[in-house]
Structures are given as C-alpha cells and as structure tokens.
Amino acid sequence: MTAHSAERTESGGVITRDEVAHLARLARLAVTEEELDVFAGQLDVIIGSVARVGEVAADEIPPTSHAVPLENVFRPDERRPGLDQEQALSGAPAAEGGRFRVPRILGEEQ
C-alpha cells in the first residue's frame, strides 16, 4: 500500500493489524491484541473518509478557506484622550515614583 492510494487488503480494509502494530511500535505505544483490531477498524474508517473527500474535490472547484466571502469592517481612526499618570497608576497593586512597582526578576540588581 502506498501513501497516496487507498487500496483494499484481502480482509476488505485499507490498513492491516500488522500495519497498526508497526505504527504503534514507531510511536512507542503499548497496544494490546484487542486494541489492534479496534484501531485497525477505526483507522480504516478514517482513511476511507479522507479518500471520499478526495473524490469530491474536483479540479473545477476553486479551493476556499470560508464558505462565504469575508469582508473586514474598519472603523475610522479617531483621537481620544488617554489616561494621565495618576489614572494609569490608580489600579496598580503597587506604585513608586510615578511608575508601576513590580517584583525584581532574574536576580537583577539596581
């Protein structure tokens, strides 16, 4: 089985228990014998679904990121008054010398 084809195996699935076991080993996952069967079935459904989506996508349909066109709505820039120093520091847990007081980090010295 190649990476680009979804050929059915003798058991009818696209992926085999041995392939699931190999993938589990590569991913360093501990997988039980029962889980191999479950995961093989689940992966088979996923691979089949991806193959169906690939069949639907036609060359005449342009790729899109959204179902409807998007338009940015911008507001005009308007100057507004900002906060003065006292207002900006009024909600701070600690202020000193007209600045925010914060804990020293990284062992820096003054």
UniProtKB/TrEMBL annotation:
Pfam family, one: GatC
Molecular function GO terms recorded: asparaginyl-tRNA synthase (glutamine-hydrolyzing) activity; glutaminyl-tRNA synthase (glutamine-hydrolyzing) activity
InterPro entries: Asp/Glu-ADT_sf_sub_c, GatC
Region entry Disordered, spans: 76-110
Keywords (A to Z) from UniProt: ATP-binding, Ligase, Nucleotide-binding, Protein biosynthesis
Keyword Nucleotide-binding: yes
EC number, UniProt record: 6.3.5.-
Enzyme class (EC, first level): ligase
Keyword field contains ATP-binding: yes
UniProt catalytic activity: L-aspartyl-tRNA(Asn) + L-glutamine + ATP + H2O = L-asparaginyl-tRNA(Asn) + L-glutamate + ADP + phosphate + 2 H(+); L-glutamyl-tRNA(Gln) + L-glutamine + ATP + H2O = L-glutaminyl-tRNA(Gln) + L-glutamate + ADP + phosphate + H(+)
Function: Allows the formation of correctly charged Asn-tRNA(Asn) or Gln-tRNA(Gln) through the transamidation of misacylated Asp-tRNA(Asn) or Glu-tRNA(Gln) in organisms which lack either or both of asparaginyl-tRNA or glutaminyl-tRNA synthetases. The reaction takes place in the presence of glutamine and ATP through an activated phospho-Asp-tRNA(Asn) or phospho-Glu-tRNA(Gln).
Alphabetized PANTHER family for the sequence: GLUTAMYL-TRNA(GLN) AMIDOTRANSFERASE SUBUNIT C, MITOCHONDRIAL (PTHR15004:SF0)
Subunit note: Heterotrimer of A, B and C subunits.
HAMAP family: GatC
Family, similarity comment: Belongs to the GatC family.
Protein name: Aspartyl/glutamyl-tRNA(Asn/Gln) amidotransferase subunit C
Gene: gatC
